[in-house]
Amino acid sequence: MTDRYRAASCQGPYGGDDAPGDCGDPARFEVARHLRAPLRVCPVHLGPSLLLADGVLWPPGITLVR
Q: What average pLDDT score do residues 31-48 get?
């Protein structure tokens, strides 16, 4: 695990540029997206991000980042 993962905060709920703000909780998962940076989310925003975030691969590529 690298420091970049320890310092990462949740980009939930959907990781969009027009989002009102990040969640602020520590990110525990990284969701792979097509032609975009991976989306780092907390457990609360994992489900909504899989369903509603832009460019999420299906089947989803989810990595645990602790």
A: 93
